[in-house]
Amino acid sequence: MRTSQVVLVTGVSSGIGRAAAEQFAQRGCEVFGSVRNLSKATPIRGVTLIEMDVRDTASVQRAIAAIIGRAGRIDVLVNNAGMNMMGAVEETSVSEAQSLFDTNLFGLLRTTQAVLPHMREQRAGRIVNVSSVLGFLPAPYMGLYSASKHAVEGVSETLDHEVRQFGVRVTLVAPSYTRTSLDSNSPSASAPIAAYDRERGIVTQAVAGNVSGAPQPDSVAATIVEAALGKWRMRRQPPGQASLLSKLRRFMPAGPVDASLRKGVGLV
After folding, report:
1. Catalytically annotated residue among 34, 131, 148, 176
2. Which one is catalytic: 34, 141, 145, 146?
3. Share of the chain above pLDDT 70, in %
4. Is 141 tagged catalytic?
5. pLDDT tens-digit readout, 21-49
6. Catalytic (active site) residue 148
7. Structure confidence at residue 195 as a pLDDT band (50, 70, 90)
8. Domain 6-264 falls under CATH 3.40.50.2300
């Protein structure tokens, strides 16, 4: 694909989305980055910020129309906006799960459905969906987040089958721990059950420690840019732990994978 692409990255206020938007701009792309509140957003050099809430269909449609009106096309959509949630499955309410899915899955669906008519018309496009290693390797006390990312993976693989006839391809990028504010800003289930307090506390501390020692989002952002502008592959793993976990899940027996996962979050 040529590098003078029109790119939309959702959720560029910080973290992976911001780093990806910067790297696309450095590659010579015309970049639009979505934020929920334009008045509070920090500018990004070479990136046009646009207000869009992926939880609101009308907001998404207005933003896509504005980008098409200005740039005339969208060549790449990066569905990065997302949220996490800590809590045992039993103590996570249905309304909390719905809120999580409204961003992580239905937000992706809203933006994808708004962009696809334009990509189909131009007979070309690339959609990059940011998943997580928890999309193929669930972890305790992040069950609903894992479920939302499993759903993202299923939708992405199905969508790629459906839209390749129009010259559009879909790809997944699944990071592992990355030093961003996603985990530190994550809400917890609002009605905790005391029986889970000990283990939940251990896992929460382990996750915080893993995030604080994790790499900055630049390598994940570079993987996203390559997934968008390079040769198509269904999955691209950022180097390091994400790539290792993917191989472990595919090639190791379930028992050792389970034991390794529990050890990694402090449960023995």
Report:
1. 131
2. 145
3. 93
4. no
5. 999 999 999 999 999 999 999 999 999 99
6. no
7. very high
8. no
Global pTM? 0.91
The domain limits of the chain are 6-264
Give the pLDDT score at 3: 47
User: What pLDDT, on a 0 to 100 scale, did the predictor assign at position 248?
Assistant: 66
Is-contact 76 7, C-beta < 8 A? yes
Q: Among the options 141, 146, 149, 176, which is catalytic? A: 149
Residue 20 is predicted with a pLDDT of: 98
**Dist. CA 76–CA 12, nearest whole Å:** 15
Report residue 165 as tokens.
């006839």
Q: How far apart are CA 1 and CA 231, in angstroms?
A: 8
Burial class for 180, CB neighbours closer than 10 Å (0-12, 13-18, 19+) = buried
Average pLDDT over residues 9-26: 97
Rounded Cα–Cα distance for residues 51 and 11 (Å): 10
Per the prediction, the chain carries an average pLDDT of 91
Query: Number of C-alpha atoms within 13 angstroms, CB side, residue 4?
Result: 1
pLDDT, position 181: 64
Q: Catalytic site residue 131?
A: yes
Are 215 and 240 spatial neighbours (Cβ–Cβ below 8 Å)?
Answer: yes
Say if CB 221 and CB 22 are below 8 A apart.
yes
Catalytic residue check, 260 = no
